[in-house]
Write a structure and sequence with these properties.
Layout lengths: L5 E4 L8 H6 L4 E8 L3 E2 L3 H10 L3 E7 L5 H12 L6 E5 L10 H15 L4 E4 L1 H7 L5 H4 L3 E4 L16 E5 L21 E4 L4 H7 L3
Parallel strand pairs: 1-2, 2-4, 4-5, 5-6, 6-7, 7-8
Antiparallel strand pairs: 1-9, 2-3, 8-9
């Protein structure tokens, strides 16, 4: 059974108590901040305050679309307001006919590093595997991989030796557990992630 210790959330997920979730073993939260050029998650700012207040690690992610790239970077950073303790992540996944290109994902990651002086985490699953194929891409491989693969045997694309964070369950698909005390989520499930080491190591790596 996977070890649930990090969750990723958006405004549609029901959150009752971050304190109870921490007591149940939760270490960190990565929350949607923005999508595309204009969308802002309305729960981001308040939940950030609540999670940080009880000592949880906090992160922000941007859902990339095929809209203007520079505007998306500005939109994300101005909304997420990342400090030195905030993990930043790029969500690169299929989105109908608005799916971003591999080049846009590359440019987004480059821009974030230029502006923050550190690399964002890359969240992706089948999309990055399909686009890179058997290629070993040193640029993408230099970013920590937050692997989306619902099941019990995570497999990474050849640019990585292993995942940094593994999203093993989401949308009610994948193994248990699918929620945690204090965060029942929508319809009884949330996006669940496993970090393989403990809090001390996760804290050291979180926003680096």
């Amino acid at each position: 059974m996977p070890k649930l210790n990090v969750v990723d959330l958006y405004h549609g997920d029901v959150v009752e108590s971050f304190a109870r979730a921490k007591q149940a073993g939760l270490l960190g939260v990565i929350h949607k901040a923005t999508q595309g050029l204009n969308l802002v998650d309305p729960a981001y700012a308040l939940r950030r305050s609540d999670a940080v207040a009880v000592g949880l690690l906090w992160g922000a992610y941007h859902f990339l679309t095929n809209e203007t790239l520079a505007g998306q970077v500005t939109h994300f950073l101005s909304t997420a307001q990342p400090d030195e303790h905030t993990l930043v992540a790029l969500d690169f996944e299929p989105y109908s006919n608005h799916t971003a290109s591999l080049g846009q994902a590359r440019a987004f990651l480059q821009a974030v590093r230029q502006q923050l002086g550190r690399r964002a985490v890359l969240y992706s699953g089948n999309l990055i595997k399909e686009l890179l194929g058997n290629t070993v891409d040193s640029f993408f491989g230099s970013h920590r991989l937050w692997l989306a693969q619902y099941g019990t045997k995570p497999r990474v694309q050849r640019s990585w030796k292993t995942y940094w964070l593994w999203q093993y369950s989401g949308d009610g698909i994948g193994p248990q557990p699918q929620n945690i005390e204090g965060i029942p989520g929508a319809s009884g499930h949330i996006d669940c992630n496993q970090y393989d080491d403990g809090l001390e190591q996760l804290s050291a790596e979180w926003a680096s």
